[in-house]
Amino acid sequence: QLHVVESGGGLVQPGGSLRLSCVGSEFLFNYYAVGWFRQAPGKEREGVSCISSGGSHTLYADSVKGRFTISRNNTKNTAYLQMNSLKPEDTGVYYCAVGTYGMAERGYNYWGQGTQVTVSL
User: Fold this and answer.
1) Nearest CA to 37 among 57, 67, 61?
2) What's the alpha-carbon Rg for the chain, to the nearest Å?
3) For each of the chain's 121 residues, which pLDDT tens digit applies?
4) Cα distances (Å, whole numbers) of residue 52 to 66, 73, 79
5) Distance (Å, whole) CA 32 – CA 67
6) 46, 34, 41: which is closest to 118 by C-alpha?
């Protein structure tokens, strides 16, 4: 089975930046789209961004557009989420998922364990 592991979460002040990484366990990772999702305390999980297998197509939630950038390096079996101008409402557990390109959770088959992002003074 394909395993993915997120890293890079932490505590950051409003306006700060953070870069999350998602590493796939095998080359097969590179044949799928990668999505980033997040879940704030007491909230439903929501789609943040996704990127196609080749990295040429991306989607962003309106709430993060212009602030977040998704990318991938298939040589390293890795996807990234660069988060700039962070706001307290960006706080939550961020998940990396692998599957079919799009913003719907149902399209993703494999999920990481999540990494905590906290934006606070």
Assistant:
1) 61
2) 13
3) 899 999 999 999 999 999 999 999 988 899 999 999 999 999 999 999 999 999 999 999 999 999 999 999 999 999 999 999 999 999 999 999 999 999 999 999 999 999 999 999 9
4) 19, 12, 11
5) 24
6) 41
